[in-house]
Amino acid sequence: MKKQPHLYAVVLAGGSGTRFWPMSRERFPKQLLKIIGEETLIQQTVRRVMSSVPVNHICVVTNHFQAESIKLQLAQWKDELADNFVLEPEGRNTAPAIGLAALRLLRRDPDATMLVLPADHIIQGDAKFKNAISLGYEIAQKGNLVTFGIQPTKPETGYGYIQPNRRARLGKQGTLSGYKVARFVEKPDVKKAQQYLKSGNYFWNSGIFLWRASTVLEEFARHQPALLRGLKAVDEMMESGQFGNPFAARYKKLPSVSIDYGIMEQSSHSAVVPVNFSWSDVGSWGSLEEVAPCDKRGNVKTGNVVDLDSENTVFFTDKRLVGSIGLKDMVVVDTPDATLVCPKSRSQDVKKLVEELKRRGAPEHLEHLTIHRPWGSYTILEEGPGYKVKRISVLPGGRLSLQMHHKRSEHWVVIAGTARVTCGDTVSDLGPGKSIAIPVETKHRLENPGNDPLEIIEVQNGPYLGEDDIVRYQDDYGRTQTP
Amino acid sequence: MKKQPHLYAVVLAGGSGTRFWPMSRERFPKQLLKIIGEETLIQQTVRRVMSSVPVNHICVVTNHFQAESIKLQLAQWKDELADNFVLEPEGRNTAPAIGLAALRLLRRDPDATMLVLPADHIIQGDAKFKNAISLGYEIAQKGNLVTFGIQPTKPETGYGYIQPNRRARLGKQGTLSGYKVARFVEKPDVKKAQQYLKSGNYFWNSGIFLWRASTVLEEFARHQPALLRGLKAVDEMMESGQFGNPFAARYKKLPSVSIDYGIMEQSSHSAVVPVNFSWSDVGSWGSLEEVAPCDKRGNVKTGNVVDLDSENTVFFTDKRLVGSIGLKDMVVVDTPDATLVCPKSRSQDVKKLVEELKRRGAPEHLEHLTIHRPWGSYTILEEGPGYKVKRISVLPGGRLSLQMHHKRSEHWVVIAGTARVTCGDTVSDLGPGKSIAIPVETKHRLENPGNDPLEIIEVQNGPYLGEDDIVRYQDDYGRTQTP
């Protein structure tokens, strides 16, 4: 398949991924994780669609909190993607996100055809994926809403199923065919799921779609007219550059509805292409064994684990040591500030645990100790009354904003690289083992003028140490307005 | 019972406690842990015997690695205990430790009577304990080697059992009687253990003993003559202040033998007092439920745990967050640098896990990130190539040695209290938010001249950051020889 000039990819990257806590956090959701391989899920997703779609045709729908992290992870394509981010003020389920993306694309290209796909799925078999897209594109051009159906491998009760109408074939390429949808089935019970598995004619709804923007918007007009009116208003506001509170308020009023329920199940133009690539939505820690390599006892093991005799257990850890003995069908996830232990059979309930953390105001539900920024990252090593200790890493050429704090002094000790430090009216370059004190209410800036990473230890002192005690005078990344 | 003028307590505090990893470490064994209550096990042990024995009659047998930590924990009695430490160069099982303590006590008091007890057991019922000691003392004066027998509550296969000869009563006080031992039984199989439990005439060997020093040494002469000769030589070396390598070499040659096997089971003077206090040797995480309070689902919970639905599970954690769901009969122990997860039924095998860690050279088997020193403590916040970050706490009036490092510079930032800092020829007092740089090969010292704790953050820089890169010029705690 040649790259189709009117094909665009819309990557849905607004998910919260609470079921991958503590590796995922509210502000660091699943698509940002390296689950398998050397790239994160969103990086893998973008790379996968690049074989069908030019990079500057890839759009990312996300929200403000995640946008910065996502842009960092996609920084290698930053020029091509620069204008392709659609930022929702808050998540309102899939239909509004997709409808808005369709309106945006239609302004760009009246023949725009959209491949919609979640950022946090794992797909293995890139050639097969590409072939499926090719057939889907053909069928979409005929005015259909194309879904991609996954051959079930077990009687899964957590997914919706799609039954094709085998007598209504809409297209064929090689061994792949596409059909009209006979019916959608919401998450079935075990007995039904077993029947579907046995019948061979029911497919998992992968949440991947392909359609012309104009087609899907016609269906919005037919089945979700109120939502479409709201989306058009939002689209107008975006077009005229209104991104403030009225925009957020308008968006908040949109009905929260899924594309499956709101459009696909209502439409008479729904189609399905049963595919042959391997797919997983890695919906929980328990599902990791489907996609990650296991040792001979069936354990998935990442990180610093010393284990005796465990079986069929998922260990997802980092540098901290986890010692384990005789675990069976368990999940153990370890991060610098939080550990999770549960049986695999309960891994769907991690979501409930995160709700409980949120209810208690536990900071561990929200962010990691390491926070990524456009200039690099920082890691909180310790916080206590009146002080905070961070390790700050600045990328070559990166620099933090020119800033000042009302309530805290800071001490910086360089541990690697060269720091160019502005403190008041003085600028100095400091190498490893050198230090400087930044008094309260003194303008300062940290910069890495070298070609190697810069690492410093920062010790903050003061009665208030919140990140919001910051006055920014100049910032390379346009952050002088908000903290 | 009045305090007996010739009664001494010998607290055996040399155990490694590997089965309580990761809370215990090779250099921070079980007796130093707060398992239940506000005091550590050794503090509770000392406080318990104080009702029967004057504090300056309490001796502690331990080794060099643990002595400093133990002295810190017993600091409130430091004057009374000052001369009462017996330091083994290495552990050689219980018989050498007890024999040596007997020789030392006999030099002090020819009528010395020794209550020997491990530092790391939990006993509940102090009055009952005191009554048992009183009867034991009476029986010991008649030339018997008294053991204290615990009424079994389950068919435990991990303990030795003692059968009293009910026809040979040696003494009686109130409801307590003591008897000659009919026989000792090594750890039985389950079937035997069930019989013993049912019979009501077998008692667990608590490892607590009472005898005249002269009596037990007569039994050493009879049953362990070679060991006794070795001990006498060691005792002579101690008396003449020889604590160097020859002393250690001599000690190392002593046979490693337990007091139970080496003396008690051989002697015709063994006696047993069945007691009615509650006792546990808390031999593993799984046994914690016997002594610690449980919630209504049977969980023992310490620390920052957010749990859904777990049952009969031991959570022993600290400040880090542990999230758990639906655990049954498990053990989860969390420390700043290491986490343990295992079923209760495997908690005896924590020992094997620690052996594996040791084999791999994992530092987590040896020490905690927080290390206690006579002047306070330090906590390693992070280590990386070329740097180390510590939080250092100095007690009021405490000061570190006057020292120098060949390979590293240090930066100190005060976060609480006042630091008196010697750096080269300069002495200065620094308050919170103040900092100082200590260059390589510069004499320096940190001191807390105030009445409040002093806390600083130390950032070390250099190619080698081992604790042994230290030259000590003066030290308040006599550590100018060894690091």
TrEMBL record, chains A, B:
> Which domain of life does the UniProt lineage start with?
Bacteria
Q: Which residues form a coiled coil?
A: none
> Any keyword Hydrolase?
no
Q: Where is the MannoseP isomerase/GMP-like beta-helix domain?
A: 303-357
Q: Show the Pfam families listed in the entry.
A: ManC_GMP_beta-helix, MannoseP_isomer, NTP_transferase
Q: Which CDD domains match?
A: cupin_PMI_typeII_C, GDP-M1P_Guanylyltransferase
Give residue ranges for domain Mannose-6-phosphate isomerase type II C-terminal.
364-475
Reaction catalysis annotation: alpha-D-mannose 1-phosphate + GTP + H(+) = GDP-alpha-D-mannose + diphosphate
Does the keyword section mention GTP-binding?
A: yes
List UniProt keywords, sorted A-Z: GTP-binding, Isomerase, Nucleotide-binding, Nucleotidyltransferase, Transferase
Task: Show the GO MF annotations.
Answer: mannose-1-phosphate guanylyltransferase (GTP) activity; mannose-6-phosphate isomerase activity
Q: Which residues form the Nucleotidyl transferase domain?
A: 9-292
The EC category is transferase
Please state the Enzyme Commission number of this protein.
2.7.7.13
Q: Which PANTHER family match?
A: MANNOSE-1-PHOSPHATE GUANYLYLTRANSFERASE
As for family, the record states: Belongs to the mannose-6-phosphate isomerase type 2 family.
Protein name (database record): mannose-1-phosphate guanylyltransferase
